[in-house]
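Database export, one record per block. Field names are fixed; values are copied verbatim from the stored entry.
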Amino acid sequence: MIPEHFLKKPITTSQDLSSAALSYTTTVGRNFKLEEVIIKSTVNITETITLTRDSLQGAAYDVVINAKDLAGNSSYVFRPDGECNFIKGDELKVQCTNANTTGVVSVEIKLSEM
């Protein structure tokens, strides 16, 4: 039997890269399926985007789901190739470097509840 999924209101955050790198961890607190992560910048940036499963079991069990080096781009969309399910206590960490200290990045995390 395939579990039902209900799309939830997107989680959003933003960061001015001139002041600090982006490091955001969700606080969903329940089982969820990652549907999509959209990252948009106010200018073209050359930075690294990293998406990590922050495991309930501790840092030794964290795993990078996706890493992307942007080279003069203003947006990036990540959609998992297959099921990307998180259990209660696991969270998603979204990071963006600020090596070039320019631009404001906005993040939209779309998930569904299982």
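Remark 1: The longest strand covers residues 32-45.
Remark 2: The chain has a mean pLDDT of 94.
End of record.
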